[in-house]
Amino acid sequence: MSTLCEPLSSTTLVETGRGGVLRWLLTGYIVFLPVQIETPQQLRFAPSDLFLAVALFLGLRVWRIRWPAWTGWHAALFGLFAVSLVAVLLTHGSVSQYVLLNKMAGLVLLFGSYLALTSLADSWGDWRWFLKAFVVSVTLQNAANVAAFLWCRVTGADDPWLDILLSSGLDRLAGMLVDANAYGGLLIVAYAVVLLDGNSDPALFGWRMRLFSLATLSLGLLLTSSRSAWLGLAVLTLFGVCRSPRLLFVVALTAVIGIGMMAYFAGAENFDALLTVSARQNTIDERIELSENALRLFARYPLLGGGIGAFVEEHDQIIHNTALWFLAEFGLVGVIVLIGFLCSFLVNAWAAYRLAEPPRRALLAGLVAAHLAMIGFSLGVEALYQRWWRLVMALLASAHTLALRNADAASGATTGIASVDLDAGFQHAGVSS
């Protein structure tokens, strides 16, 4: 047992206690994903990033970049941003704070969280633990946010503590994320995992908790009034129905329950007001104009785009569409890199699904549904940097790695080679695989 004066070894960081210091820091990162704090400098601080930064520093001797979790598309994405940044510097002599903080620092955080998660999700027990921590955290926090939102809409309560749960006010539910669209993306990922979890063994939740989770997440999605999130919901529903037609009934049932609860608690006047917010014809016109401006920028620089941050510099707005953002600022090359990067996770997920044992396939399918839903969602939001999408990508990559290792171990056992129980790594932490 180490004392406070002794340095922490890499073994201590990973294996000691209930999963090790690094695993608990990453668990904290995941649990606080639904929380952001807006600062007076108009910057948003995410407590989850603090957990991640500490973990990345303490784990400098632990992190490993290993195939197949990392592919050439990761290098292509990083290279695309780096080359574009250098080109902007050479052309204009400087880059904006927005580019440095939102674009480049965001990319570093994306790769940092991916590195940490793919390094530590090195058994099916770890993989399941991180996924369950996310779903439980989102479900419980969303239930509290929904209750506070409806309570304030019905009673007009204005207690200071309610402002913490309702960061963007009472027009649209954003929980503690400030942005209602971002909150919708968060709920979509959790909903996808819970929806397709029914056949895993054991399931993340019993049927009562699963129904509660789906109903409250559905209600939360409705209250965000986020059409981008609803598009993502449509995509994951399509995927779910292709996998099991009865899931259409589950989605419809939870949607009806959610709408019924909203109408009952909000009352007729508030319900009509929420529907009016969802219509928002003015934002539809605005998005069409932004899309047209993005295509004009692409037409001027079709191959490599206008450069990172060029659209914001010219129009003082973001595009609100991930594909059009890449098309306008990185050109055809950027779109090819984006498509290759996102599709690489689907290819690896398919390989993992074929190799994984049947009880694990349901959760893996849930992550695939979440990834597809986020792709649909990204057509209305610049979603690449959303932390929950990073989590989905990392867990899909880790599942592929684990499935390959288990297949190799099984092959070694049949040829008389001693194999290692890869699921044993986290059993001592009290987490079953």
Q: Please report the distance between the alpha carbons of the first and last residues.
A: 27 Å
Q: Per DSSP, what share of the residues sits in E-state strands of 2 or more residues?
A: under 5%
> What percentage of residues falls in helices of 4 or more residues?
over 70%
- Note poorly predicted spans: 1-8, 414-433
**Radius of gyration over C-alpha positions, nearest whole angstrom:** 22 Å
Order of helix and strand elements from N to C terminus: HHEEHHHHHHHHHHHHHH
Q: What shape does the CA trace take?
A: globular
Biggest sheet details: 2 strands, antiparallel
Classify the secondary structure makeup into a structural class.
mainly alpha
Q: How is the largest sheet built, in terms of strand order? A: 1-2
Instruction: Report mean pLDDT, rounded to a whole number.
Output: 81
How many distinct beta strands?
2
* Total helical elements: 16
Give the domain tally.
1
Write the layout of secondary structure elements.
Blueprint (H helix, E strand, L loop, with lengths): L9 H10 L1 H11 L5 E2 L5 E2 L1 H12 L13 H21 L4 H24 L3 H32 L4 H6 L14 H16 L11 H18 L2 H17 L2 H34 L1 H20 L9 H6 L6 H34 L2 H20 L9 H28 L19
Antiparallel strand pairs: 1-2
